Amino acid sequence: MNNKYEIIIGIEVHVQLKTKTKLFCACPVEFGGQPNTNICPICSGLPGVLPTMNQKAVELAIKAGLALNCQIAQNSIFARKHYFYPDLPKGYQITQYKEPLAFSGFLNINNTKIRIRRLHLEEDSGKSIHSGNESLVDFNRCGIPLIEIVTEPDFRSPEQAVQYLQTLRQIMRYLEVSDCDMEKAHFRCEPNISIRPIGQEKFGVRTELKNLNSMHNVKEALEFEFVRQSKLLDNNQKVIQETLFWDEQTKTAGPMRGKEESEDYRYFPEPDLPVLHIDSEKIEEIRETIPLLPWQRKQVLIEQMKLPEHIVDIITENKDFADYFDKTIQEINEPRLVANWLVTEVRAILNEKVLSIQQFPITPRRTAELLKLLKEQKITNLSAKEIFTEMVISDNSPSEIAQAKQLFIEEDNELLLTTVKQVIEENPDVVLKYKNGKTTVIGFLIGAVSKKMMGKVSAANIKDILVEQLK
Question: What gap in Å lies between CA 462 and CA 446, rounded to an integer?
Fold first, then answer.
């Protein structure tokens, strides 16, 4: 990137709230339904209708605000934001403007404090679909509850902006405020970007980027826009304040429309909705429902359970996965054993079968039963993997599967001794390395013995006899 200029980024994020119905009516919130089927006179903007507030949406918005260290306004006001697009049937959007539900928050990203200016409730617009010379409008999305989270211009690199978005999305999922599926438009971000010569205090002219449906697109679009604006300034040209549309195919941004200012929307108070009053008792009641957030959970696993950080990062990345870990730990208090098994074996099956942890057919209790057999050395690690694979398609317990497949360890010490001697004779070069001080090669000999014994002998017993025979 050009080292003459500094990039300044602020981000607006729209998060679709996880409610069953829309913000001001009883229409269902569903993705992928037939166009214009989940609508009613209220959300389609017919004359004479009155909005009714969705209490669940308010509670989820407060929960999100508290998790982002925001102050919650006990009195907030809705407004009408006027603009005229085909997918906005009323000709205005009900949102919050001067007096939002939450304000003055922050989120720490790698020890950098990203200030959150405001978090407010609003309704979504519909969706325009362009095909050839035709433009179609689907109003199903009209009225779906959103929160808009607006930061101060505190980002100084595309990478920092992406990390913020990833952290914010993770928090919303932990709170169960939203599914945050970018492909379904549950989590939409609109960065504002300007540049200025390094050392200059005054901000440059900003542009806004839209149509960013993945974190990769966000990074690429910000990098593109930084280069574009840099070239304009290098050639003594002006940056125009406008909204840009990101084209994922060409990896370029093009003009969509002029960037509006707040006065262009002609805000005024929504006359059909009263002041939204939230008493302090309700705020504290919602605060009590906030679970341990990712970094708090990570701290517990590292400090109390002594797990390595790279393993903890994987476990805590997804709340449902972390919950599965916790439920397994409740059945068998062996954090390292459970963590290693989940990160390797469970994730391998999830990836192979393209499942989420919520769809995983093996319960935490069943996983714990298997790990208890492994811990008590009743089965080998190789047998445990075989049993686990069977558990995916069977309702039988780990013990029943082990019994049916004859995988319980029933060691014949005479046969084991004979096999160890045979492996030593077959691998003179490895034995010589061991006797010359390279003791790590014993792992190869253990594996060779285990293979000959069909994986039915514990590695600990094999090692004991090998060490004795190699003296």
Answer: 6
